[in-house]
Design brief:
By secondary structure, the protein is mainly α. The chain has two helices and no strands. The protein has one domain.
């Protein structure tokens, strides 16, 4: 397999785990509003990058 493919899949999986971990910590601590805003911003950036990586990988020919 291609190294870029593995890095992309790793980025998506690690990012998904980080989003879940951050969400559970926010719910447990009843986080402040600014913490929730940063969680939303981070999740949005991760999602956009992940969504961009998938078509790019297929256009490369995997």
């Amino acid at each position: 397999m291609d190294l870029i493919f593995l890095l992309s899949i790793g980025f998506i999986l690690v990012g998904f785990a980080a989003v879940i971990l951050a969400k559970s910590r926010i719910e447990k601590q009843q986080g402040s509003t600014s913490l929730k805003v940063w969680w939303i911003v981070g999740t949005t950036v991760w999602g956009v990058i992940s969504i961009t990586l998938i078509p790019w990988l297929f256009n490369r020919g995997l």
